[in-house]
Design goal:
Elements lengths: L35 H17 L43 H4 L46 H4 L2 H4 L9 H23 L3 H7 L15 E10 L6 H6 L10 E10 L2 H7 L2 E7 L5 H7 L4 E3 L10 E3 H8 L8 H15 L5 E8 L1 H21 L9 E6 L7 H10 L3 E7 L23 E6 L13 H5 L1 H10 L16 H6 L6 H9 L7 H6 L16
Parallel strand pairs: 3-6, 6-7, 7-8, 8-9
Antiparallel strand pairs: 1-2, 2-3, 4-5
Organism: Urochloa decumbens
Keywords: Chloroplast, Hydrolase, Lipid degradation, Lipid metabolism, Plastid, Transit peptide
Protein name: Fungal lipase-type domain-containing protein
């Protein structure tokens, strides 16, 4: 066995500049401490390596908290942050990827934010927005005031300014229910396939984000218009785009007893999506007002002809939307007779107008049944996201005064759909919104969306839910601890998201789907990327 050979020391070699304990040639250390020049050189080399390896920078504290105690570094109510390491590096652990979203080292605090920049005020609080499964805040009990949260006792008075956090949570859940309807439709858009899959009353691809609710029946809307066969043959669009009948929503009921106890009642939800097919788009353009019944007088309630057509027209193999809703709600009310019940009808865009029509008819039908069997019908409320004007003033007054239905209209100030159709010649017969309350959002309040976001983004349902998640009240700043994911927003409305978020998402390996990919995967929805940009 050969003996080990020891290399002689090389007195001419220079110490590595990356070793902070080494001395620079000819420069002694002071009091046994590392040389200041060597330490500076080390830091410079490490910084260069970080840039070459695209290493996320350390997460600094926001400017407004640097003079505060360490406990004040997190925004109130934010329980998702991780404890910082002693050297201030919070990249380790499950938050490492998300901490890279902080752009404070790239955007100097002294520079005024431009259109494509994120607000420095929100950088440290918006760092986890690309996560697909944000941790939700605990649900508060509303059992004692559920009628107030449902629109009774003053139509949400005192809950909107500032926005009550429990009401925000309820509205976001109903909005996610509508997103589930969009997803179910685009995953199985063929009416024939959807009807066959719904033979047991439930759409096969429908998955609710809140498992406390159980879908009980799929709903279909049929147009009285039909695409001419020659036009359908010449069209390059898929067959479902021109079909007369389509899956439009569903009925669900809360069957989780713990959730029933938290809400103070058992809730029946009727969920309706917006425009997705050519016949539905054509019906939106039929804005002329017509009576709700054939024997109505000239001064009676009237609604837009196209909305009424979609609501009342039966399909070839399915009943009308009107019949299906009334039949299923009556069945559920009878099934849970003796319990405290509520009916919530929620819709986006076209679905919001259909929700108003359904509320008017349900209130009348249940009141008629009450006269014979029950002491009082369940209260009915409508939640409208980006809904257009549905009928005339007589219809709006009848809905609120005679039917006892209040409508909470969630409106984006930049959404043109909420302002159509315009009033016609006679002021008496002009289109108006249903009575209730309005919750007005602004795209410019979001730290993620560009201030010049286009009409499609302003009408997009996911943009509505993103703004609602951060809304605290008129004129108030965006909620610092808003935690709704922006992943879907990047997929649907990427051109309207600030470039800083898009670029940082790309660096992190999150590449949002392109418009074509989103459509091919069944992800498009009313006002989002897809074959049609619907006015409602």
């Amino acid at each position: 066995m050969s003996a080990a050979v020891t290399a002689p020391p090389c007195h001419n070699s220079r110490p590595s500049p990356l070793n902070p304990n080494s001395r620079a040639s000819g420069t002694p250390s002071i009091a046994g401490k590392p040389n200041a020049v060597s330490t500076s050189t080390t830091r410079r080399h490490l910084a260069n390596l970080d840039r070459l390896l695209v290493k996320p920078p350390p997460l600094p504290l926001p400017v407004q908290h640097r003079r505060s105690p360490p406990a004040a570094a997190s925004p109130p109510g934010d329980g998702d942050g991780e404890a910082a390491t002693p050297d201030g590096d919070a990249r380790s652990g499950r938050g490492g990827l998300l901490n890279a979203l902080n752009l404070s080292t790239l955007l100097p605090f002294t520079r005024k934010p431009a259109v494509d920049e994120m607000s420095p005020r929100s950088l440290a609080y918006m760092q986890r927005l690309l996560t697909l499964s944000p941790r939700l805040s605990p649900k508060g009990s509303i059992a004692g005031e559920w009628r107030r949260y449902h629109g009774g006792d003053g139509a949400w008075e005192g809950l909107l300014d500032p926005l009550d956090h429990n009401l925000r949570r309820e509205l976001l859940r109903y909005g996610d229910f509508v997103q589930a309807a969009y997803t179910a439709f685009h995953s199985m858009p063929s009416a024939a396939d959807a009807a066959a899959a719904s033979s047991n009353g439930q759409h096969r691809t429908l998955v609710l984000p809140d498992r406390s609710y159980r879908p009980t029946r799929s709903l279909f809307a049929s147009s009285s218009l039909a695409i001419p066969p020659w036009a359908a043959r010449r069209s390059q669009a898929p067959g479902w785009l021109t079909q007369r009948t389509s899956f439009v929503g569903y009925v669900a009921v809360c069957d989780n007893e713990r959730e029933v106890a938290r809400m103070g009642r058992r809730d029946i939800a009727i969920v309706l999506r917006g425009t997705a097919t050519c016949p539905e788009w054509a019906e939106n353009l039929r804005a002329g007002l017509v009576p709700l019944s054939d024997d109505a007088n000239a001064d009676d309630a009237k609604v837009a002809k196209g909305f009424l057509s979609l609501y009342k027209t039966p399909g070839d193999h399915v009943p009308s939307l009107s019949s299906a809703i009334v039949e299923e709600v009556k069945r559920l009310v009878a099934l849970y007779e003796g319990e405290e019940l509520s009916i919530t009808i929620v819709g986006h865009s076209l679905g919001a107008s259909l929700a108003v029509l359904a509320a008017d008819e349900l209130a009348a039908c249940l009141a008629a049944d009450t006269n014979h069997r029950r002491p009082a019908p369940p209260p009915i409320a409508v939640v409208s996201f980006g809904g257009p004007k549905t009928g005339n003033r007589a219809f709006a007054e009848r809905l609120q005064r005679d039917r006892g239905v209040n409508v909470l209209r969630v409106v984006n100030a930049g959404d043109v759909v909420t302002r159509v159709p315009a009033p016609i010649a006679s002021r008496r017969e002009g289109h108006v919104h249903a009575g209730g309350a309005e919750l007005r959002l602004h795209s410019g309040d979001s730290p993620c969306l560009r201030p010049d976001a286009g009409p499609a983004c302003c009408h997009d349902l996911e943009a509505y839910l993103h703004l609602l998640d951060g809304f605290t009240g008129p004129g108030r700043p965006f909620r610092a601890d808003a935690s709704r994911s922006v992943a879907r927003l990047l997929a649907y409305q990427r051109p309207s998201v600030k470039r800083a978020y898009v670029e940082r998402a790309r660096v992190l390996g999150f590449e949002p789907a392109s418009p074509r990919t989103a459509t091919a995967n069944g992800a498009c929805a009313d006002g989002q990327y897809g074959y049609l940009a619907s006015p409602t």
